[in-house]
Amino acid sequence: MTNGLTDNTGSGAAAKASSAHPAGVPWPVPAAWHCRIDGLDWTRATTGCSEAAVFRLAAPDRPTLYVKTAPSQPCGELAGEAARLRWLSSTGLPCAQVLASTRTNDRDWLLLSAVPGRDLSAAELSPRELVTLFAGALRQLHALDAGSCPFDHSADQRIALARERLAAGLVDPEDFDQENVGVPPAELLQQLVAQQPAVTAPVVTHGDACLPNLMAEAGRFTGFIDCGRLGVADRHQDLALATRDIAAELGEGWVGPFLNSYGQPLDWNKTAFYRLLDEFF
């Protein structure tokens, strides 16, 4: 079972967590966690949509755990992810469970439960099954009471954070989508501000609704992971990224069936805006 991540097995990345500083882990592990993670094999994960370093912790006859860690910084998402996962769990929707969270040695740390199954980029599903499951999971999320969600993911807030990330040197032009390669990030930011659409009927969004961030097992949705950007926003925050991922991984022909299953067509102006916004994160 995996947690939306691919293990770097066979590369020497696994290590016993028998000390404060497991081999292959370049930072001291929080001391308070030692009794909980001692004796588990650490394996560095190599795929996923998180900016944090992610490790899978496993041993025979013990529950699989995950550790996420990232530098503590004003634009960081890991500390906020703990609060978001706890809130999402309180709604009854399945997601990774926060077992512990802390800040030590200028790093944020999360200890998480595993979510059963495989992420949607690796799940053994037909394209139709995949888009139907993906759409259904987003419908459930977007049906939550937005008024009860304390996390603001509005366009105004995200544009402000995009400015901060650009000023902090956290925007990577080499990771831009093909149509934006070679465009200076400052110019893209100007485009973003000029294209900001009005928000109608805000919902609770995942914020990074790509295939690796949803889990499935035996043909059913089992939970959300990498929820550091969860918050109230226009539903196109999720639909824009979901349809981009579906087109890239399955082909443009599966975008229509996804939208039919979700039950709403795309607003292409909003879709362009939220895809452009994603260049800064």
TrEMBL record:
Example of a GO biological process term: response to antibiotic
Enzyme class: transferase
Amino acid composition bias (Low complexity), ranges on this chain: 10-22
Positions bound to Mg(2+): N213, D226
CDD domains membership: APH (cd05150)
Alphabetic keyword roster: Antibiotic resistance, ATP-binding, Kinase, Magnesium, Metal-binding, Nucleotide-binding, Transferase
Enzyme Commission code: 2.7.1.95
Cross-referenced InterPro entries: AGP_Transferase, Aminoglycoside_PTrfase, Kan/Strep_kinase, Kinase-like_dom_sf
Catalytic machinery residues: D208 (proton acceptor)
Spans annotated as Disordered: 1-22
Gene Ontology molecular function terms on file: ATP binding; kanamycin kinase activity; metal ion binding
Residue ranges of coiled coil: none
Sequence ranges assigned to domain Aminoglycoside phosphotransferase in this UniProt record: 47-274
Catalytic activity: kanamycin A + ATP = kanamycin 3'-phosphate + ADP + H(+)
Similarity annotation: Belongs to the aminoglycoside phosphotransferase family.
Protein name from the UniProt record: Aminoglycoside 3'-phosphotransferase
UniProt organism field: Rhodopseudomonas faecalis
